[in-house]
Amino acid sequence: MLDLILLLIDDMFFAAIPAVGFALVFNVPVKALKYCAILGALGHGLRTLLIHYDVPLVFATFFGASLIGFIGVHLSHRYLAHPKVFTVAAIIPMIPGVYAYKAMIAIVQIHHYGFSDPLFVDMIDYFIKTGFILGAIAFGLSLPGMLFYRQRPVV
């Protein structure tokens, strides 16, 4: 149990750093930086916790992104800001950069060494993982907006 707590603290600390870094790049107001760090840490921490309990990566990413989205909507109401101020930078630590990188490396190797079935399978596998994780992030972030801001037609 102590190992899991230390893993989560480590994961959340190192997820908060890129969230703040990207918030600075996106010119987020200084008062909102701490919320970007907290959201990035909470979302990535939830994803890590779920993965630890054998939830598939795509579903864990969806739930982490949804948590970021819901808390971001709450913060936007509280501080009268757009939810993207809090959520866009916070979601950055969950971007599947390693899978996308490995897919591109497989493409380069196929080009350089010629076609082979194992390289092609690796390329397709990494591209599919990247796409599904990005889809989970997109749906997770858009879920609060669909629930809270959707206009229902008047009958």
From TrEMBL:
A GO BP entry: succinate transport
Highest taxon listed in the record's lineage: Bacteria
Main location: membrane
Compartments where found: Cell membrane
GO cellular component: plasma membrane
Family of the protein in this entry: Belongs to the ThrE exporter (TC 2.A.79) family.
Protein known as: Uncharacterized membrane protein YjjB (DUF3815 family)
Lineage: Bacteria, Pseudomonadati, Pseudomonadota, Gammaproteobacteria, Pasteurellales
